[in-house]
Design goal:
Two copies of one chain form a homodimer.
Chain A lengths: L15 E2 L11 H9 L13 H10 L7 E5 L2 H11 L4 E6 L4 H8 L3 E6 L10 H7 L5 E5 L11 H13 L3 E5 L15 H4 L5 E6 H4 L8 E5 L2 H10 L7 H9 L4 H24 L3 E3 L6 E6 L6 H9 L3 E2 L13 E5 L3 H15 L1
Parallel strand pairs in A: 1-11, 3-4, 3-5, 5-6, 6-7
Antiparallel strand pairs in A: 2-8, 7-8, 9-10, 10-12
Chain lengths: 353, 353
């Protein structure tokens, strides 16, 4: 059983999908044009080495020559490939977090421990608590900012964690699927510090920030060539499709889309947070990402009842299925555009009255 | 190291790619139109259950309700997923055959044995020899028609093999990636007999016959629900991208593309075979697929020298790397359209003179 947002296919009337954390700006026009102009690209096998795609990613992130990039069939594919390629049998994460880490660990017979290190309102984490629990020769995955809490660990703290984990002969995977939605991006990314740590792998999803999860494009970055080679070796040939390669050739250079998206998320995250905070019966947690975790405090309501009420209005929210340490009162909302956010707020106001 | 055709990316001048076995009719117009009209589909996660896609495939193949379909990120993804999902530790194939079977077996610590059962000119196979070698509780993969020999096992023989393997508590995977290129398709497919065998899984590549390997769409079919569930359980979420889902919604109903492709392959396979047979210094083996295996009999030439000569003319051929039981004198040629085939023949005539 897999639990994810975006499952609009179970319903036939969803207009506003707040369950999937995707940029509502949608598919970039630059990509649509590039794809329209290059439809015949599907007639060829993609380059098994994905040389042009890797170059685009390296340009986008201004990577040095000693950074190694590996594209995959979405970020999830890379999570699986990384766990599959490593000879470690313990995986530690900070919960609640993305459920695919657990699923991938189970698949590869890796012991999975999801440590709760948050305070009561998900505004702080206890790093030492976490590091004390982590064992020698482990893999650690930190989703940063974290899904579903929206908590962002600053890069100085991440550097401290990476160094401590290095002492424990452990590998740190930082899943930056949502990092481009943070206000101080690119400074919030661990990329600039990555070069100091041979035990770190970053994962990025190209397609959440660029509004097209359907294209399936993720990539891993590390400065550890041996790790890169191990992952590469176990990947299937042609795992990234030709449309994703086209996307790589244009979206990273779409400065207009990128700057408008940064403006939108800065404004709308705050707007939605403030307005949600004003609603009775809800507690909303502060988030650095493009979504908010909330808790229903109204006794007669829970996330599933609320979901059912909102579906009647064409709105889908993310119920807490699959997340550790959440209750049936928790749910997650993506930040969408003003029209969608306003509509959601008006319906919530009505339903929670 | 992976060895495959279609690696035009190592060169910068390939005009005619005879190394990849793809329908030269190219990307169907029906797909181009559907994709142009549905660019926003990338803005959503695909349905993790791929319900509409499965329905399209079932319609295309007129499948009964008791046939279970599983889409994957290309046929290769399904080969890996099937081996990963099974509790068998031996894999038998008939060599020479597709190198990913071996690679997948190695990945999952499955003992791999590629049995040579052909006669001297790849026109017959010794089934009993093969069955005698196959052990209890094994997986058997037969590529039908086979890559690179083009040999087609008839469905009565396949039924006999399936029954014998059932006695041995073994699973038969029939990789029908090239079956739609055979002259008597759909009668050449094991599909109609599949319902009698709970130990059979068929694999199809949607995108060789429909001229678009870049889209990454394969599917597995079985009437064994337990096998289907096992494979499904270990698949990653969203492994099939949104463009492939769009393809599934239109290409299978593109009767014009399908009938023209059947006419083309029937005519061009024979044309190319006859013309190649007339060339000095070459032995060409009979094939039921959209490619020919050849052997260079001219002493001063081998497949690598020939490849280098042909590359000068913008032609890429498939050298024997990665194939068992072939020598450096063997190579493979896809059947392309008349213009390409004629050009190839004229250059071959010149080079082999």
């Amino acid at each position: 059983m897999s639990f994810h947002g975006g499952n609009i296919y179970d319903y036939n009337n969803i207009i506003y999908d707040f369950s999937a954390n995707i940029n509502p700006a949608g598919v970039p026009e630059s990509f649509k044009k590039a794809l329209r102009d290059n439809m015949d690209v599907f007639a060829r096998y993609p380059d098994t080495e994905y040389r042009a795609l890797v170059r685009s990613i390296k340009d986008y992130l201004s990577l040095d020559d000693d950074a190694y990039v590996l594209p995959g069939n979405g970020a999830v594919d890379l999570i699986y490939s990384i766990l599959d390629s490593m000879d470690y049998n313990k995986l530690f994460t900070m919960g609640p977090t993305f459920s695919e880490y657990r699923k991938a660990a189970i698949k590869y017979n890796i012991r999975y421990e999801e440590v709760f290190c948050y305070n009561h309102d998900f505004s702080k984490i206890d790093i030492e608590l976490f590091l004390n629990i982590v064992e020698e020769r482990s893999i650690i995955i930190l989703c940063n900012p974290n899904n579903p809490t929206g908590f962002l660990i600053d890069i100085a703290t991440l550097a401290y964690i990476a160094a401590q984990l290095n002492e424990k002969n452990s590998i740190l995977i930082i899943d930056e699927a949502f990092i481009e939605f943070t206000d101080d991006y690119p400074h919030s990314s661990f990329l600039s510090k990555m070069y100091d740590f041979g035990n770190v792998v970053l994962i990025r999803a190209a397609t959440k920030f660029f509004g097209m999860p359907g294209i399936r494009l993720g990539y891993a970055i590390t400065c550890n060539r041996a790790i890169w080679e191990r992952i590469k070796k176990i990947q299937q040939p042609w795992s990234v499709n030709a449309a994703a390669v086209i996307a790589g050739s244009c979206i990273f250079g779409d400065k207009d889309y990128i700057s408008k998206s940064h403006e939108w998320i800065k404004e709308e995250r705050l707007y939605l947070y403030n307005e949600l905070s004003n609603l009775k019966g809800l507690e909303v947690y502060s988030s650095k990402a493009n979504f908010h975790l909330l808790k229903i405090t109204e006794k007669s309501m829970d996330a599933y009842k609320l979901r059912n009420e909102l579906v009647k209005h064409g709105i889908l929210i993310r119920t807490p299925d699959g997340f550790s340490y959440l209750t049936s009162n928790h749910f997650r909302l993506a930040v969408l555009d003003r029209k969608a956010n306003s509509f959601l707020l008006s319906v919530l106001y009505e339903v929670l009255l």
